[in-house]
Design goal:
Largest sheet of chain A: 8 strands, mixed
Number of helices of chain A: 30
CATH superfamily of chain B: Ferrous iron transport protein A (FeoA)
Largest interface: A-B, 46 and 38 residues
Number of strands of chain A: 13
Oligomer: heterodimer
Number of domains of chain B: 1
Strand content of chain A: 5-15%
Strand order of the largest sheet of chain B: 1-6-2-3-4-5
Radius of gyration of chain B: 12 Å
Number of domains of chain A: 4
CATH topology of chain B: SH3 type barrels
CATH class of chain B: Mainly Beta
Distance between the termini of chain B: 17 Å
Shape of chain B: globular
Shape of chain A: elongated
Largest sheet of chain B: 6 strands, antiparallel
Strand content of chain B: 35-45%
Order of helices and strands of chain B: HEEHEEEHE
Number of strands of chain B: 6
Chain lengths: 692, 86
């Protein structure tokens, strides 16, 4: 049989698809079970990547062709069960119920069988054809665990295929099992017995549901969910056949008098069954060795060393990302700001405005996108290594207590720390946070972390007006940023993203040596996403700022406005600067300082250069000029405003690409408001205590 | 089913107050909703063996070993897991 995967399957799909038998496969498994590796091995890594409708959870679909079969694999989110409590679980169960995949492949962890078996049993209740891939048999063996997979297969009544995903062991057998299961007419899967009391009621409900027209879902599953009190299922059934509601209420009342909380009882019964089956097919061989993970953890999560090591590792990630990318960034700057720019400027046959659009708009826009690229790629590379090694979970464990106080999970620390370097990868690093609400909040507060582009602005202003307190003023920006991020996070989690918190119950996966191919694939996928989704937004933003500089209320001013102070005052930028100056009257900033803020939209470091142009002075004498423009108080308020006021266009684009336009606008609005209020309060308090 | 068969010594305690390094068996989980589900999802189910390995440097959360697997859990959530020493 000829086997085609990924790209080839995609290409040949069009010519052959009419002759092929299509098998729809859904891939499910608990988190950290190696599901995405199996997906890649099955489909050759080529996947169509999108989002599930309405949520920011990633959806991946891949294909393979074997013989006369076209197998379309949908990768469902990592889940533990099929409750209505988490977005991931709802996505998974809706897909299985509504899209009716022909075969559901459940990937189980041989080293931790009971947890995976609970998911297997839950999915079997949906009445679908199941194949179990018993993964990580190598790790289980290392830990002295042997699983009798043939016995497991007999017990469950489904095919069980032992696999080692990372080496590709068992993948061909898995494909064969999928096809065999697809061809099977009848399946007699294992049914969990919930005890006489509950089973009697399940029987009654199933009978009643048989008369419920239009109900497509398996009746036993619906009956169990009705007894558990699942709101989603209840409202579906209620819409189709309202007469059942009374029976459900009666059943729940009667049963909970005997058994206590029914959902708890049923869930525990299913888990007890998983534990029982696991113990039947599993045997232990004494290995008695201390695992590598234990040794490493005794250092990395050590009482005294843990936190300093966590900070050191993040600092090293930082240094790595910047040191490696700096030469590349310099090269890209040289290419765009000097070589290409000079070339465009030397083209005499072009009209003035076009030369300026190309040189100051398009080239500087493309340059801005590309100068982000090396830093982002290096951050992702480092982060992917830390993630795949298993350290990110430990990092969250070590710092969790600090964030717990603000109702946030420990992993929020990662975007906040990366944000000190650059907010763009910080926003994108929130991908590693499992809970959707936590992820959204983290992405929204990440831009409050003071990035390196803001530093030159702080240094210039603090140097000009803060005297001996310059160092302290600059350092305080970092603390103000983090403190406000935590407070805003707390407020958002309480008011806007209320969903239940999972707390901090999570697995600490064993340390693994990451596979370079996996790390590079992940890095590339994330970097490419930034380039495609953020690139156009950044370019567009830079061109708009250019347009606002060379035109004004009186019409076209010409590219000279970019270098001429009095012309620039007549542009839209100058006009808006006056408007902002009016609204920020209490802060006492003049219109030039306000116009510079608009350029900061493109990238915060541009604020400094713009101040130079606006005050008509060279870089060298800028600090001396600023000393006359700001008082210590208005200068400090300006620094806080720079810290908070807007994420740069790159960061906005990253938020848009991660969460959607709505959230990018939310970030923009709340930050402008926060910046305004914060600097107003600073000036107010300052004046009260007699400063300024 | 496991409750009657277990050979146990002493009285049951909350997991948040369990002594470090000793082997316990989960007796019951006394909270509801998502947190309870998450606890069960992690294999912390009545009858499972559990041991507190360490606390994080700042005193919270805990790292516990459940049937051989390390799991991190905050003390506030560990408080609703009742365990008994083996």
């Amino acid at each position: 049989m000829k086997l085609l995967r990924g790209e080839e399957a995609f290409v040949t799909n069009h010519d052959l698809s009419k002759d092929l038998v299509k098998i729809k496969v859904a891939l499910v498994g608990i988190p950290n079970v190696g599901k995405s590796v199996i997906f890649n091995k099955l489909t050759g890594g080529k996947a169509w990547v999108g989002n599930w409708p309405g949520v920011t959870v990633e959806k991946k679909v891949g294909k393979l062709i074997i013989g006369k079969y076209l197998i379309e694999v949908t990768d469902l989110p990592g889940i533990y069960g099929l409750t209505p409590y988490t977005v991931d679980e709802v996505i998974a169960r809706n897909f299985i119920l509504n899209e009716s995949p022909d075969v559901v492949v459940v990937i189980a962890n041989a080293a931790n069988l009971e947890r995976s078996l609970h998911l297997v049993l839950s999915i079997l209740e949906l009445g679908v054809k199941v194949v179990v891939a018993l993964n990580m048999i190598d790790i289980a063996r290392d830990e002295g665990i042997e699983v009798d997979w043939k016995a497991l297969s007999r017990l469950l009544g489904v095919e069980v295929v032992p696999t080692i995903a990372i080496t590709g062991y068992g993948i061909n057998e898995l494909v064969r099992a999928i096809i065999d299961t697809y061809k099977r007419k009848e399946v007699k899967p294992y049914v969990v017995n919930y005890g006489d009391l509950i089973e009697a009621w399940i029987g009654k409900l199933v009978k009643e549901l048989g008369r419920c027209e239009g109900l497509k879902y398996p009746r036993r599953w619906v009956a169990i969910k009705l007894l558990e009190g699942d709101e989603h299922v209840l409202s579906t059934v209620d819409g189709l056949c309202p007469q059942i509601k009374g029976l459900v209420i009666k059943a729940r009342e009667e049963l909970s008098r005997e058994l206590g909380d029914l959902e708890t009882y049923i869930t525990e019964a299913r888990y007890r069954e998983s534990l029982r089956i696991a113990n039947l097919v599993r045997s232990y061989v004494e290995v008695g060795k201390v695992t590598i993970t234990e040794v490493i953890d005794s250092v990395l999560t050590h009482k005294v060393l843990g936190i300093p090591l966590a900070l050191t590792i993040m600092y090293l990630l930082f240094r790595f990302a910047f040191e490696v990318s700096t030469p590349l960034v310099d090269l890209i700057r040289l290419l765009f700001d000097e070589i290409l720019r000079n070339y465009v400027l030397s083209l005499h046959n072009l009209p003035d405005w076009l030369t300026s659009l190309l040189a100051d708009g398009v080239l500087s826009g493309v340059g801005a996108v590309l100068t982000f690229l090396p830093v982002i790629a290096m951050f992702f590379l480092g982060l992917s290594v830390l993630e795949d090694v298993g350290y990110l979970a430990r990092f969250a464990f070590v710092v969790d207590k600090i964030f717990h106080k603000f109702g946030l999970p420990g992993k929020v620390a990662i975007p906040l720390i990366i944000g000190f370097g650059c907010n763009v990868p910080a926003v994108m690093s929130t991908r590693t946070i499992e809970d959707e609400n936590d992820r959204k909040v983290s992405a929204l507060i990440a831009p409050l972390s003071s990035c390196s582009a803001r530093l030159p602005v702080y240094l210039a202003i603090a140097g000009a007006v803060m005297g001996n307190y310059a160092g302290a003023a600059v350092a305080s920006m970092y603390w103000i940023g983090i403190l406000l991020a935590l407070i805003v996070g707390l407020i958002m989690r309480k008011l806007m993203f209320k969903g239940p918190s999972m707390g901090f119950i999570m697995e600490l996966p064993p340390y693994l040596v990451p596979r370079p191919a996996d790390v590079l694939a992940k890095t590339w996928e994330r970097t490419r996403k930034f380039l495609v989704k953020a690139g156009t937004v950044i370019l567009g933003g830079v061109v708009i700022v250019w347009l606002l500089s060379v035109t004004g209320p009186s019409g076209y001013l010409g590219p000279q406005a970019l270098t001429n102070t009095s012309l620039l005052e007549k542009s839209w930028i100058g006009f808006l600067g006056h408007v902002i100056a009016y609204f920020t009257l209490p802060m006492g900033w003049d219109w030039r300082a306000c116009s510079a803020l608009l350029f900061g939209l493109v990238a915060k470091e541009i604020v400094l250069g713009s101040l130079g142009v606006l005050y008509g002075v060279s870089k060298g004498s800028l600090v001396a000029t600023l000393a006359h423009v700001f008082t210590p108080l208005t200068g400090f308020a300006y620094m806080v405003f720079i810290l908070l006021y807007v994420p740069c266009i790159g960061t906005l684009a990253a938020i848009k690409s991660e969460l959607g336009l709505k959230y990018a606008l939310l970030a923009l609005t709340y930050q402008v408001t926060l910046a305004y209020v914060a600097s107003l309060v600073i000036v107010g308090i300052g004046k009260l205590i007699g400063l300024g | 089913m496991s409750r009657g068969v277990l050979k146990t010594t002493g009285r049951s305690v909350r997991l948040s107050e369990a002594s470090m390094g000793r082997e316990y068996v989960v007796v019951s989980i006394n909270c509801n909703g998502v947190v309870k589900r998450r606890i069960l999802d992690m294999g912390i189910i009545p009858g499972a063996k559990i041991r507190v390995l360490r606390t994080a440097p700042l005193g919270d959360p805990l790292e516990v070993i459940v049937s051989g697997f390390p799991i991190s859990i905050r003390k506030s959530e560990a408080a609703c897991i009742e365990v008994i020493e083996r």
